[in-house]
Amino acid sequence: MTTGPDAAAGPWERRQRVRAAVVDERSAPFTVEDVQLERPRPNEVRVRMVATGICHTDLAVRDRFLPTPMPIVLGHEGAGVIEEVGSDVRSVRPGDHVVLGYAFCGECPSCTAGKPAYCVHRGVLRYGGTRPDGSHTLRRAGGELYGSFFGQSSFAEYALADERFVVPVPGDAPLEYLGPLGCSVQTGVGSVLAALRPDPGASLAVFGTGPVGMSAVLGAGLAGCDPIIAVDLRPGRLQLARELGATHTVNPTEDDPVIAIRDLTGGGAAFSVETTAVPTVLRAAVDSLGIRGRCGTVGVAPAGAEASFEMNTLLFGRSVQGILLGDRVPREFVPELVDLHLAGKLPFDRFCRFYELDRINEAVAATEGDGEVLKPLVTFGRT
Ligand SMILES: [Zn+2]
Ligand SMILES: [Zn+2]
């Protein structure tokens, strides 16, 4: 008697071979190799990746700023097409175009308050390397392999994600560009529109014009801020910031940004956004605020990093607010961002550049150090 091979097989017997970029150890280059992806569990979907953005957080984890286990497949700005859904999945179906959002539990005080970015269980769910129950979505010949990074691990031809974390997007939107909406772009735009909420005409300064800071500049433009002051060491980025809505730019190699911002705003900015996670830059972002000004800080610093400012600075109504992932619910916010993009009001594609998966290390090098590429995206042409 014979039986069908899949009927009684366990999840690994029904695994799929996919090409993925693996980080084997701290600060090691990515290695592109064949690994094995489990089939979806009842709550999961399998997504064929179209393109995945490379985010600073991928590289921070590669460099062990956070204690994520290795070897691991990183990647958390994925966009693709659903190919298979688990038996309990109801909200999406095969063929849907989706942006992969970040993982959250859905039950903790932050999640039930509509703030899943601050999920109490975010550490294990986003950085733990496995599903919540400890099982692995990925493995490879000859050893263990971690995945489920941010609930997706999208530096791979295919990814598994919990149904709740995928965001359906219109089929006519340019899917290859949309992955960064799941992290960098929603972080930058949301820090302004959702967290700081400036009134039209309010002054706002952005420190660091990487992909998050440049998205904050775009968000400030959508909010009607004026002036919008971009601060960065790189002239090329400042030029792009002007093209994307900054009314003024300051290069700290030429001018003291605190003095320049006070001059441009008549005493200090109403809002500042700090995206570099460098303590001295956070200090400058706080010191550049006017009375009752508010600084939003969004960058991931190394564990244990400390920053300082003069205590009396805060007495005059000033505040510092930490902001994670844009402060909105991705299933609500990402579609709004797609609509803005389709209407030409959120041209983040201006700072995207594509690299085939095999060139992922080249893509990383292009964005590190003095690299001029803001947002490299890995594509999967072989699929
Ligand atoms: Zn990110
Ligand atoms: Zn939660």
From TrEMBL:
It comes from the Bacteria. Keywords: Metal-binding, NAD, Oxidoreductase, Zinc. Residues 211-339 form the Alcohol dehydrogenase-like C-terminal domain. SUPFAM superfamilies: GroES-like (SSF50129), NAD(P)-binding Rossmann-fold domains (SSF51735). PROSITE patterns: ADH_ZINC (PS00059). Its cofactor is Zn(2+). The keyword Transit peptide does not apply. Residues 42-170 form the Alcohol dehydrogenase-like N-terminal domain. Belongs to the zinc-containing alcohol dehydrogenase family. This is NAD(P)-dependent alcohol dehydrogenase. It comes from Pseudonocardia acidicola.
